[in-house]
Amino acid sequence: MQKFPKIELISDQISNCTNCSLHKTRNHTVPGSGNYKAEILLIGEAPGANEDKEGIPFIGRAGKVLDELLNHINLSRKDIFITNMIKCRPPKNRDPFKEEIFECSQFIDMQIQYINPKVIITLGKFAFEKFFPDQTMSESRGLPHQWNQLTVFPVYHPAAALYNPNLRTKMLEDFEQIQQILNKLNTCKENHQMKFL
Ligand code: URA
Questions:
Q1: Domain 6-195 belongs in CATH node 3.40.470.10
Q2: Burial code of 105-131, b = ≥16 C-beta within 10 A, e = fewer?
């Protein structure tokens, strides 16, 4: 995979992308935001209406939940990089199609390579399936997983807490694990590698 000298070049490529039909209905691409030197990369599903309007991820109701979860563990958007599996809004917020995820996957791959995080937090099933297509979210959430050289930590999508408030406690508990995972990784000799399971 090509190494890009600047994260902005990846964003430029995203802005110019016409690989799937979503480019016809988008107002803005939503490449991602935050600190590209962060140890933590969060990956959601797809932009919604607010994100499409502004070009910034997670600024709607799900974003508020996410900010609360980050705040709960003393993190802010400046401490993380956040992006989505697909960078354009699917009309009427429908689920992304497989072909759209496939066409967009080059961008998430470049972002992972460029940011080189210590831990990837997958928010919901679409991001989780990129790494573990044969596993289910219900069995895997809240458990750190090894993927290539990276640690992937699956959690529910923050929007799930909007529909099912009982999940909020589980999500808070899952987020509480993030700092422990990072601490463990930082004490490991081979920084990014650790056997969890
Ligand atoms: N949901 C997502 O998955 N991503 C966003 O950017 C907003 C809502």
A1: yes
A2: ebbbebbbebbebbbbbbbbbbbbbbb
